Amino acid sequence: MENLASELDFLLEYVRLADAGEGLACWLKEYEAARQDWQVDRCQRLWSFVAAQPLDLLTAARIRMMRALFWVDQGKWVEAEREYHHVLSVFEREKDWRNAGYALNNLGDLLLKQGQWSEALFAFKRSAEVARRIGDEITLGHALSNIAAVHEMRGEHDAALRGYEDALAIARRLQDRVGEERALSNLGTMYRRMNRLQQAIECYEASIHICQEQNDQRGLALSLVNLGVAQYYQGELDTAEATLTQALSELQIIGDLAHVGAVLNNLGLVQRKRGNLDGARQLFEESRSIAHNMNDKWGESHALSNLGNLYKVQGNFAQALVCHQRDVVLCQELGDKQGLATAFLNCALIYAEQGDWETARRHGKQAWQLALTEQYNTLHARLSLLWMRDALAHKEDKVALEHWREAQEAADRAGKAERALVEAEARRQIERLPLHRRWKLKRWTIRPGESA
Predict the structure, then answer these.
(1) Residue 222, SS3?
(2) What pLDDT, in 10s, does the model give residues 436-447?
(3) Structurally, how many domains does the chain consist of?
């Protein structure tokens, strides 16, 4: 039967003839394989077939949950959210709590992608409650990991670490190697954000070992991507480039174009760090082209952001604005609040470079509203630095100091690495001032025990 399932036409006939349970399992396997390989037409054909079959309520809900994952892949987040709410209502009404917990995790993940952190956290906590009530430790581990991801994005690193460590402990207790690999990857990314790069690398290497053991080619490729990014932040550019190139080769073999685009984006960052700006631009452009052709708005947004920042460094403000303004549109279409706030901030910074403070303030205020509402601490800190720069440009030094204090407070919530970046940027702004203003302001940027 597995041979028949490898060809779609035979598969459809098989589902018609086989018993419902076995047929559904076969359909789910084939649909998931097509979705992972971005075979859009194949997914549509599979969906059209199964939608025409007489299915019981719970089976139809399980299939619609798979449909929601497809919508997420296509960047159609409104459709995906509608599907999740529908299937969740079915699972809760029919008291299918295991699938309800799974659906809540998926819904939370979608909300997280859109930057709706509070709503995502609520969904993940509900999933954890359901999982504890029915003793579903696998779903509980996923929920705890997702809750940790929200804490991570908010800069609440201690809470995030505890969540990821709890998820890892559950996976190891259950001897769930797939769950263990996922927990190690998440823990590695958390360490990377905290600038604990050696610990991040150790987690990624353990993740790679599990993927090799499980013969998980896609998981191996993605773990290599994570490892390459950590090596990049460690300053090991040659090693990072080699690791990312290996990941690129693995992804090309399995035909995972979406992640190919993401790796090209990372390789572009390596080239930019080397000072090879033309090479970086070509890689960002290629990444954007792949994402655009696949209707991967998330990937295209990331590539545009990097392209815009590159053009800004080169002093090509007009082209930088084109990229960031297009990014604004994409993030609005996606409902990605964090991405939208970042895109508005990037536009504001370019207008500030050009001395157009009125337009810079207008874009900055749109980013500011999102940063405060959704508790984006890193963006809050960087916007406060923009207001500080605005005040200094207009010789409003006392106002600048107020914004500097606010930037410090937001950066402290985001973590030590962000605090260091914010302090460095504030010092750069102050060093540009005339000597008499510089000395008046400089003492406010020095912590007790430090010297000028």
Answers:
(1) helix
(2) 888 877 665 544
(3) 3
* Whole-number Å distance between alpha carbons of 75 and 81: 11
Q: Which residues contact 275 (CB under 8 A, 6 or more apart)?
A: none
Question: Please, what sign has the CA dihedral across residues 123, 103, 65, 8?
Answer: positive
Q: What predicted TM-score, i.e. pTM, was given to this entire model?
A: 0.76
Reading the block at residue 113, the tokens are 């992608």
Domain boundary residue, one of 361, 393, 412: 361
38: left (phi over 0), alpha (psi -120 to 50) or beta: left
What's the CA angle centered on 426, arms 420 and 427, to 5 degrees?
90
Nearest to 112 by CA among 158, 144, 150, 63: 150
Q: Is the pLDDT of residue 13 over 60?
A: no
pLDDT tens digits, 405-425:
899 888 888 777 778 888 888
Q: What is the DSSP string of 386-413?
A: HHHHHHHHTT-HHHHHHHHHHHHHHHHH
Determine the Cα–Cα distance for residues 351 and 367; give it in Å rounded to an integer.
14
Helix (H) / strand (E) element for 132: namely helix 117-134
What is the domain range of residue 180?
176-255
CA-to-CA dists, residue 392 to 25, 407, 408, 426, 430, angstroms: 64, 15, 17, 11, 8
Residue with tokens 């510089």: 438
Domain edge (last residue) among 332, 361, 390:
361
For residue 320, the surrounding DSSP H or E stretch is helix 317-334
Q: How far apart are CA 14 and CA 36, in angstroms?
A: 22
Q: Given this model, what pLDDT does residue 374 score?
A: 67
Q: Would you say residue 342 lies in a domain?
A: yes
